[in-house]
Amino acid sequence: MANDLKVHGDHVEISLAGDLTFARYKEFQDVMKSATSSGKRSCVIDLSELTSIDSAGIGMLLFANDETKQTDIALKLRAPRGEVKTILEHTKINEVIPVVA
Amino acid sequence: MNYASPHLAASIQAAASRSDADSRLLSTIRESRILVVDDQRIVRELLKVYLSAGGYKNLLFAEDGAQALELIAAEEPDLMILDLQMPRMNGYEVCEAVRNDPKHAGLPVLVQTAADSPEDRARVFKSGATDMVGKPINDAELLARVGIHLQNLHMLRQLSIYRSSMERELEAARRMQHGIMPGDDKIAALEQQYGIEIRNLFQTCDALGGDMWNVWRIDDRHMGFTSIDFTGHGVVASLNTFRFQSLTLTDDLDPLDLKNYSERLNRRLNALLQVGQFATAIGGFIDFEENVVRYVSAGAPRPFLLLPGEERGRFIESDGRPLGMTADAAYPVREVPFPPGSMLFMYSDALIETPTMADPVCTETGIADILSVRPEDGSHPFDRLVDDFFSRLDEPLKDDLTMVMLRRPAAAEGAL
Fold it and tell me: How far is A85 from chain B (nearest CA, A)?
């Protein structure tokens, strides 16, 4: 369930696994802080291993979107699956944060 | 010989300068009633001198165990210093009697003892003593132990007072929250006016919740409804339900103009809410002349609709950006038929995401299975869905749960 942060050539990549709920707020905030201070202009959050997300989790993605906008970093969500994909589409998060396959 | 402990005096002074709360606690500690129980007058006198030098003036004295119990009942001391070997009733018996009396079971008892063997010490604690002071009595040790146990006692009392006042506040807030949702009288009046059946369940996982629902009269022909779920639960989420309520009350927009109504509400919520806070919601009205439901949805879970003559109902569209998430969200108005004999069921996501989204106890299929059976075929489907859900739960809810069913009886069923 740990967040995994990798710095690639031109972007930072964060992999989220397990459940994204309020319990992970601090952990997520820390990893986003590392991402926004990495100096890269682009950030991808990989959701392929994420099995569930609640409203607080969606709030955390919106928070990340706000932070990256303020620091002029392009944020993308990648590869949501199953119920996570369904809920992101249902709440139209893909209109707010770009989602790539 | 100076009995006052210079260390304690210094630490008392340091504590006094720490803060008002600390100094209030300190003066409460000094006003504590201390009961000294010893059959030897000389020991009672000695303890009196030590305790007085430590700042304690409310002292009570007993010469034996029986008198100690009488004084405990009559004077309710805050702490007792107890000798073990006494006539009439010894210290062990006093200890046990105090612990068996629910009214005084929490009284700190300091036993004076010369007992050095582990067995003796074990016996002292087994009889219910809080702590021991060694004999012969040393003033610094005595005052340190008395001080620490009185501090614990008063801090526990303060916590308990704080806790009960918090509970009272939360209970008042909980009643206020229920007050912004329709009560039985209002529901009955609407049922009678429109010839409709309204069933609901509202259960919060904490004292307060972030869900809310409403039904109301718009005019003779239209009845409004909403079901809303703010991010999170508990106090913060519940404050947002009050915000929502006041926004809808102060808005003079036409409730039949759903698109403008919802988009303006969204903009106003967006300006109020912090980033990451939002509400999934569905709202609209039943038009009893055109026999339709018109609604807008902000990402609420898909409602279930059962039309007359259908063997199995369907889930209707409800995707949309949650309220308050972005200022520019658009909410297209959707329409479904709703003639007599129809039923619409709305719910918050806790119903299909408990205990987890990946492995819920209730699914859309499960909802459709239960709700496609009409009320006339046995027990009410709403009750069956509620019973089914709670019978499968083996832990308390982790999110607030709201369920609302609006049902128009078939013409043959007549008035309710």
Answer: 12
DSSP A1: -
User: Given an 8 Å threshold on Cβ–Cβ distance, is B276 in contact with A62?
Assistant: yes
Q: Which residue among A59, A84, A95 places its CB closest to the CB of B276?
A: A59
Across the interface, whether the CB atoms of B231 and A55 are under 8 A apart is answered yes
- pLDDT, tens only, B293-314: 999 999 999 999 999 999 999 9
As a whole number of angstroms, the distance between CA A44 and CA A74 comes to 8
Contact B231 A60 (CB under 8 A): no
Shortest alpha-carbon distance between residue A100 and chain B (Å) = 19
Residues 30-89 of A with CB under 8 A from B: 51-56, 58-60, 62-63, 66, 82-84, 87, 89
B36 — contact with chain A (CB < 8 Å)? Answer: no
Contact A52 B358 (CB under 8 A): yes
Nearest to B356 among A19, A89, A96 (CB): A19
pLDDT in tens, B241-261: 999 999 988 767 899 999 999
pLDDT (average), residues B317-335 = 96
**Would you call A92 an interface residue with chain B, using a CB distance cutoff of 8 Å?**
yes
Contact A54 B318 (CB under 8 A): no
Answer whether 0.90 is exceeded by the pTM: no
Could you give the CA distance from residue B234 to residue B189 in angstroms, rounded to a whole number? 31
